[in-house]
Amino acid sequence: MTPRHFLSTQDYSRAEIDALLAQAAEFKRSPQGQQMAGKSIALVFFNASMRTRTSFELGAFQLGGHAVVLSPGKDAWPIEFDLGTVMDGDTEEHIAEVARVLSRYVDLIGVRAFPKFVDWSVDRQDKVLAGFAKYATVPIINLETITHPCQELAHALALKEHLGDLSHKKYVLTWTYHPKPLNTAVANSALLIATKMGMDVTLLCPTPDYVLDERYMEFARQNAEENGGSLQVSHDIESAYRGAHVVYAKSWGAIPYFGRWDEEKAIRDANRHFIVDEAKMALTDNGLFSHCLPLRRNIKATDAVMDSPACIAIDEAENRLHVQKAVMASLIATASGARSGLGF
Ligand code: CP
Predict the structure, then answer these.
(1) What's the farthest any 2 CA atoms get from each other in the chain?
(2) 59 and 66 in contact (C-beta within 8 Å)?
């Protein structure tokens, strides 16, 4: 039987997301448990991590379980490897064997693989994560690929802690400058979770070329319709910030320029004024600011914003620990045939 994975929050109903957040809040109040006693998780990081790795390792420990960290290029796939070929057998080891072997050892597998080899114009599939989900016989957790669902839960929990009911709160996801284009995972995810929570979401970006991938825009439109919120795109900084309850910042590349970053650079450089600063935050309704971290200070957001009481990025980062414990505990319970206690 195919296990239930945690690949995307789109695979989970609003009620299931709310149940995970409630369980996470309970773990925040009472951190120790035995939900993973005798169980283990393998964490496969194709890309570096500080927060995700630390919070998953500690989370498993606090639930009585054990985490094994694998770094392709060093542990799995010990030779020179290309993320683009681990699915087609053109490397020393195919993902099919890695997923199946790990499934014999551990109870959960987490995978981080930024899609830097994906050509967005012809092939937008999240192949590495999909490969693990195809071949593994234990649940797979997305540790950040084309989306970052664990970050979504941590973000939502932090917003609920500060704002209570999120329905119709004005949420601005703003593009910010960065010297190099970054992947869109967290930006896609911000749209998904904010619309799932019924917020009135504005995607603020310099030009139409920076609107996010249509797949995620469409998911967000569906979420808004199902959960009573809204989604709009704006290129006007002042009107987007005015009255906002939440400003979330992220850098990403313009999709039509994917792989042609030298051409995109002029547009990016011309939009450094998208930085989140005190003047823009003063337009909000005592708005909160957050970011998934890491963040380049005074490039994406000023010191003044980062060090202000409005900034809840550290709360969000802390919540990674609590929400991931809820995800691991529910997947372990579901896979072992027990009800998770979360209604699924
Ligand atoms: N936000 C986040 O996932 O951080 P890391 O890259 O440090 O894991």
Answers:
(1) 55
(2) no
Distance in Å, CA 109 to ligand 1 centroid: 17
SS3 127: helix
Please choose from 58, 116, 144 the residue to mutate so as to test ligand 1's pocket, defined by most ligand atoms within 8 A of CB: 144
197 a known binding residue? no
All structural domains of the chain with their residue ranges: 9-148+320-335, 151-316
Q: 48: buried, middle or exposed (CB in 10 Å: 19+, 13-18, 0-12)? A: exposed
For ligand 1, is residue 51 a contact (CB within 6 Å)?
A: yes
State in Å, rounded, how far the first CA of the chain is from the last one: 16
Q: Is residue 50 lining ligand 1, measured as CB closer than 6 Å?
A: yes
Please give the distance, rounded to the nearest whole angstrom, from the Cα atom of residue 320 to the centre of ligand 1. 9
- What is residue 9's three-state secondary structure? helix
pTM: 0.95
Is 151-316 a domain of CATH 3.40.50.1370? yes
143 ligand 1 Cβ < 6 A? no
340 marked among binding-site residues: no
Amino acid letter for position 20: L
CATH topology for the 9-148+320-335 domain: Rossmann fold (3.40.50)
Residue 250 in marked binding region: yes
Q: Please provide the size of the chain in residues.
A: 344
Per the annotation, does 151 bind a ligand? yes
316 lines ligand 1 (CB under 6 A): no
**pLDDT per residue of the chain (344 residues) written in tens, 0 to 9:** 789 999 999 999 999 999 999 999 999 999 999 999 999 999 999 888 999 999 999 999 999 999 999 988 777 776 555 665 666 556 667 888 999 999 999 999 999 987 654 555 445 557 788 889 999 999 999 999 989 999 999 999 999 999 999 999 999 999 999 998 778 899 999 999 999 999 999 999 999 999 999 999 999 999 999 999 999 999 999 999 999 999 999 999 898 888 788 999 999 999 999 999 999 999 999 999 999 999 999 999 999 999 999 999 999 999 999 999 999 999 999 998 855 555 55
